[in-house]
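TODO from last week: model Pyridoxamine 5'-phosphate oxidase family protein.
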Amino acid sequence: METSGTGRRPTAERTRDVLERLATERDVWVATAHPDHGPHQVPLWFLWDGEAVWMCTGATSVTARNVRVEPRVRLSLPDSFDVVLLQGEAECFPDQEVPSDAAEAFAVKFGWDPRVEEGPFTYVRVVPSTVRAWRGEPELRGRLVMRDGVWLD
């Protein structure tokens, strides 16, 4: 990923950079909330399939329990200078019911297949509805690169 200096990148360049990071990075911070217990945030490995983020966690984890009650989530890539924030609704798939193409791609990327582990796992799929991206103060204005699930130009 190249930066065009300290100036402001056009939206199309920001979108390209976000898509590149989603395709190549490994970790995402997942923020969930429970109506009675409040917010919860953890890092998870993720896979970008071109339209959704796929993560996997223990079936009884706080993250899995929270998204079953409140599916709205926020995701962030772990860089405080090159910020990427995604918002969407999570959908849970038990490890034995996850679409095979997603599970296989996840296993290839990480060399780990939760479907063969002892104990149940849950795959969490998030199709972003909103994406914001910025590098430093010059890009705070115009940081929205996806609105209502549509990438902006």
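Done. The radius of gyration is 16 Å.
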